[in-house]
Design a protein that fits this description.
The chain is of the alpha+beta class. It is built from five helices and five strands.
Length: about 140
């Protein structure tokens, strides 16, 4: 399997864009942890490492990472969009606490089987899907 950097490099080249140091820094930070993140959190993590990258550059780079399949929009909660890197990982779903924002990841074979059954029934080819449940975590109930 190719590295995320190689996938991104090929994607950028095919789009006729430049693989800038800023884009590489953003890619590296996204893949440095498996935590969910929004633009502000990513901006803060990069800034904490004394890197000088604007929010605008992050906003322009995230759609490229989405389009080439390295990250996905995981959830929307409290008006914020959270992303996660997905390249090389099994599909999973999320439980989201609407009070504290805690995100719990889980895998469920039954959900996967049901998705396949529905797609087969309608002769539909899946390119992406998300399953999430919103509610209250154990601490916030």
């Amino acid at each position: 399997m190719e590295s995320e950097k190689e996938v991104f490099r090929k994607y950028i080249k095919n789009k006729g864009l430049k693989l800038t140091p800023e884009r590489i820094t953003i890619l590296n930070e996204v893949f440095s942890t498996h935590d969910h993140f929004d633009v502000e959190e990513l901006y803060g993590r990069i800034g904490a490492k004394r890197e000088s990258i604007s929010r605008t550059t992050i906003y322009r780079t995230l759609p490229l990472l989405l389009d080439c399949g390295l990250i996905s929009e995981a959830i929307r909660c409290k008006g914020r969009v959270y992303y996660e890197h997905i390249y090389g990982h099994r599909h999973h779903s999320h439980l989201v606490c609407i009070k504290c924002g805690k995100i719990i990841e889980f895998e469920d074979d039954q959900i996967e089987k049901e998705k396949e059954r529905i797609c087969k029934k309608y002769n539909f080819k899946t390119t992406e899907y998300r399953f999430g449940i919103r509610g209250y975590c154990e601490d916030c109930q």
